Amino acid sequence: MKHIFIINPAAGQGKELETLRQEILRETRLRLIEAVIHRTNARGDAERTAARYAAELKGEEARFYACGGDGTLNEVINGAAGYQNISVGMIPIGTGNDTIRNFSPPEKAFRSVAAQLTGTPRQIDLLRCRGRIDGINVDRFCVNMINNGFDCNVVARAAQLKERPFLAGSAAYMLAVFEKFVRREGIRLTVYGDGEKIIDGSMLLCAVCNGSYCGGGIKSAPQASLVDGMLDLNIINYVSRRQFLRFFPDFARGKHLERKDIGDLLITKKCRRVRLVPKDSESFLTCVDGEIADTSGLEVEICPSALRLIIPEHRE
């Protein structure tokens, strides 16, 4: 069985990447495993590489390891989509790494090449997204979450802030939250869930969730599960700054569903299909697994047990 490591050098630091490369070589040689290491050179290269190897394997069992952040994992999954012989693992060297937070092994287990090589594939659901994104008709998979409105604007701003020294991961995200909170940037959409119109107008944010986490550890959808065959639609109403300040600490910790006033703040629905249509504009910003894009509308459906994700071996 081949083991193919697809490394995104933009996701980590030079020394960290070399340490990872040496660990891959050491652990695979120790186990007499046939391994390939590919360093990506541009956006989309991880997807193209995964697709090329998947086609060349001709049904042979293989493991692809996305070494980067959630965006790298998204590319590898889309490149390997439709190939039942391939399992996908994630070795997190990015800044967000929200997908792995949905599973019980700690981040250090996912970072361990040895634990990945001995890990067990587990069937998880995927989100399938169709629509026009950045001027192109797309049909793609998403593993964790699609964010629109406030949280998408926060992710876009956080990406800019991460370019500054000493601002990375959750620090950049929290500063972006503060900036967008002051401006109260929301979104206007018509949202349908399983054919039913859920909301038509202004909202602070609208998230289509497979996993629970976004923004480097914000537990925005504690009720979501990657194995329940359903997606979770979360809509936060356009609230005042005072309401938001009271609400956000619970929202960040995943405790907001326990609030007595949650019915006034949040609309949540489990469904199989969601359609997002812009209102009063031709397009809106969307954030798919942490990657920002412009879309004129999206249709999202759940694909149960569509991916074999490697869960690393972990012993306390």
TrEMBL record:
Cofactor(s) this protein requires: Mg(2+)
Record-linked Pfam families: DAGK_cat, YegS_C
Residues in DAGKc domain copies: 1-133
Keyword Metal-binding attributed: yes
Provenance organism: Hornefia butyriciproducens
Cross-referenced PROSITE patterns: DAGK
Family recorded in the similarity comment: Belongs to the diacylglycerol/lipid kinase family.
GO biological process: phospholipid biosynthetic process
Protein name per its UniProtKB record: YegS/Rv2252/BmrU family lipid kinase
Keyword Membrane: no
Keyword tags: ATP-binding, Kinase, Lipid biosynthesis, Lipid metabolism, Magnesium, Metal-binding, Nucleotide-binding, Phospholipid biosynthesis, Phospholipid metabolism, Transferase
Gene Ontology CC annotation, any one: plasma membrane
A molecular-function term among this protein's GO annotations: ATP-dependent diacylglycerol kinase activity
